[in-house]
Amino acid sequence: ILVGLEAGGHQPDLVSLHRDKIRQGMREFISSLDSITRLNFYMTNKMKKNISASVFKGTSPVFLSYFGLMGIVPCSLRSIDLESDGSIKYLTKEEISNSKKFKSGFVSLEIIFNDPVSGKNKYLYYFSKNISNSGLENDSGLLEFVKKKGDFVSTFKAASFLIHYNHFSKFKDFILDNANVIIMDDTGPRVKELKKGFDLKVFGRYSRPINLWPEMYQKELMELHKEQKPDPIKFRYGYGTLNRTYHILYARRKEKIP
Questions:
Q1: Are 133 and 206 within one domain?
Q2: Is residue 75 domain-shared with residue 139, that is, in the same domain?
Q3: Quick one: 110 exposed, middle or buried, by C-beta within 10 A (0-12, 13-18, 19+)?
Q4: pLDDT tens digit string along 32-50?
Q5: What predicted TM-score, i.e. pTM, was given to this entire model?
Q6: Longest C-alpha distance within the chain, in Å?
Q7: Same domain, yes or no, for 139 and 157?
Q8: Pairing between strand 73-82 and 198-204?
Q9: Looking at residue 223, what DSSP letter applies?
């Protein structure tokens, strides 16, 4: 289950598109993959241009391209929305064409794919949703959908420190109250918010946030690294910190929610 403001988009119709449009779309698409491939995170301003406003609009082309790179076979891609009780609503062609929002690509996605390891079909859900307090007040479907899934793991990675701000407190509280495991960098919940209810283990090296958010430094996270003395991790995760070091915090709830 993935969540973002960006459009889910529709499957590109390469047959009817003019060649010039296809070339433009491919340039935009390749540009959209640059930062995630090179830096391991998306840059917000580029996402607005190359994902939500491109010829091949939305996150669906990104998902499908990575499926191809990983040898994963997609079985179906459907445009969806959520009812207020968290149930999935499959959008018809008529509903999409009659809605300016849906027609412009701002739909959520259900992608069924075949796992090459297990051989089983699995589901990827991408929800084009606003998780700020006001967004969740106006649209309760997302949290209700996640609740119905029961036991879940939450992941934060290069998340712009959103839940450190007061106007994202509802989403943060939902994760703290319901997730049994949280895997994250420093853009997830603060260590001081996790200590009471979770056992914490750190990996890698933490020094300070990247330059865009110097005020998000966590003394408690630094102390945890000094105490546990973890080995460096040999891959990129999130923004990273000083001298291109990367870190992961693994939080497991002390009393698991059934």
A1: no
A2: yes
A3: middle
A4: 787 777 777 777 666 666 6
A5: 0.90
A6: 60
A7: no
A8: unpaired
A9: H
